[in-house]
Recover the amino acids of this structure.
C-alpha cells in the first residue's frame, strides 16, 4: 500500500531538513505539508518528491505551484476553477472533500455535483482526499459515515485515486485505506491507537541539564507567585529549559522529569527558561546531570496528558533553542 508522509509544522517539530531526506531514503515519494512556504522548503530538500499543499490555493499564489512543481489541494469550486485556468489538464491537483470536519473542502453534495464536470480534467485532479474526524476512537459512528460518504464520492470520480486514512485511520481497517495512506503523528512516535498500547517506536527524546541543586525547608515556596510550598525538607533540581523552548507552562505542578530513571515532579510555575523539580528521591540528581522530559516512561502522549493537551502540541511546540542530535535514518 503506497504511503505518503505528512511533514507539516517542521515535520511535527522534529526538523524538516533531517526528517524529509530520511523518509525519502526509506522509500517515501509523496509528501504533504500545510503551507506553501513549507512546500518550497521541502522542494529545495527533495527535488524529485511529490509535494502537496493541504491548506488550499490562496489567491495570487497560482503561478508559484507550476514553477516549483507543487500540487495544490483544492477545497472549493472557486479553487478548482482557478487552478483549471493554470493547469489546463497538464498539472496535477488534489480535490479535498469535506465529509464532516467542516474546515476545508467541498461538501459531499458539492463534490458529487462536480463529478463528471469538465473542470475536473482541466484542473488535473488525480487524487481525492478527505480527513477523518475521530479516527482515534474506532467505535465512533462518524467513522463509518465518513467512510461511506467518501466511497460515494469516489464512485462519482471513476479512475481517480483516493486517500482517506491518517495515522489513526490506518488502524480502522481496509475500508479506510483506499490508494494512499497519509500518516503524520504516528511517524514521529505518537500513539495512533490511544485505547491500546502504542504500536509505534519512540522517535523523540528530550533532555535538559540540571543547572543547580538546592535544599529547601518546610514552608519555603518555589517559583513565580509561590505556587508550591514545601511541606518538609526537600531537595530541588533546577532544569535548564522552559516554556520559551516549547515545554508547556500548563505542566506546572503537574508534569514530571526523570533523573536517573526516577520520576521527579515539576514544582511551581514553569518559567521561560527554567523548570524546578523535586529530586529528593533521585540520588543521580547532581549539577550537570541529564533530566529526561520526553523519553522512557514519559512518552509524548503522557507528557501531553500531564499538561492538559495532546502529544501533537508537545511535538510541534519543540523550540529552536534545543541542540538536536539525529540518530539513524
Amino acid at each position: 500500500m503506497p504511503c505518503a508522509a505528512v511533514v507539516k509544522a517542521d515535520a511535527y517539530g522534529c526538523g524538516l531538513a533531517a526528517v524529509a531526506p530520511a523518509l525519502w531514503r526509506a522509500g517515501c515519494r509523496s509528501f504533504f505539508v500545510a503551507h506553501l512556504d513549507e512546500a518550497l522548503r521541502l522542494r529545495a530538500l527533495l527535488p524529485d518528491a511529490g509535494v502537496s499543499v493541504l491548506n488550499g490555493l490562496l489567491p495570487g499564489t497560482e503561478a508559484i505551484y507550476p514553477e516549483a512543481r507543487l500540487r495544490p489541494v483544492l477545497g472549493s469550486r472557486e479553487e478548482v476553477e482557478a487552478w483549471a485556468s493554470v493547469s489546463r489538464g497538464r498539472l496535477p491537483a488534489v480535490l479535498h472533500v469535506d465529509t464532516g470536519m467542516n474546515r476545508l473542502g467541498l461538501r459531499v453534495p458539492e463534490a458529487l455535483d462536480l463529478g463528471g464536470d469538465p473542470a475536473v480534467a482541466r484542473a488535473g485532479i488525480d487524487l481525492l482526499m478527505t480527513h477523518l474526524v475521530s479516527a482515534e476512537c474506532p467505535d465512533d459512528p462518524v467513522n463509518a459515515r465518513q467512510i461511506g460518504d467518501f466511497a460515494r464520492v469516489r464512485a462519482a470520480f471513476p479512475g481517480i485515486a483516493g486517500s482517506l486514512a491518517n495515522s489513526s485511520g490506518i488502524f480502522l481497517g481496509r475500508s479506510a485505506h483506499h490508494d494512499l495512506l497519509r500518516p503524520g503523528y504516528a511517524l514521529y512516535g505518537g500513539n495512533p491507537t490511544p485505547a491500546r498500547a502504542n504500536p509505534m517506536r519512540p522517535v523523540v527524546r528530550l533532555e535538559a541539564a540540571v543547572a543547580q541543586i538546592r535544599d529547601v525547608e518546610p514552608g519555603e515556596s518555589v517559583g513565580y507567585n509561590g505556587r508550591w510550598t514545601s511541606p518538609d525538607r526537600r531537595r530541588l533540581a533546577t532544569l535548564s529549559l522552559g516554556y520559551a523552548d516549547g515545554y508547556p507552562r500548563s505542566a506546572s505542578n503537574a508534569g514530571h522529569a526523570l533523573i536517573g530513571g526516577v520520576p521527579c515532579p515539576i514544582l511551581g510555575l514553569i518559567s521561560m527558561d527554567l523548570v524546578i523539580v523535586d529530586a529528593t528521591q533521585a540520588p543521580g540528581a547532581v549539577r550537570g546531570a541529564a533530566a529526561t522530559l520526553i523519553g522512557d516512561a514519559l512518552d509524548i502522549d503522557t507528557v501531553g496528558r500531564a499538561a492538559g493537551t495532546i502529544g501533537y502540541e508537545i511535538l510541534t511546540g519543540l523550540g529552536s533553542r534545543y541542540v538536536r542530535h539525529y540518530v539513524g535514518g
Notes: The chain has a mean pLDDT of 97. The longest helix spans residues 141-155. The chain has two domains: 5-188, 206-316.
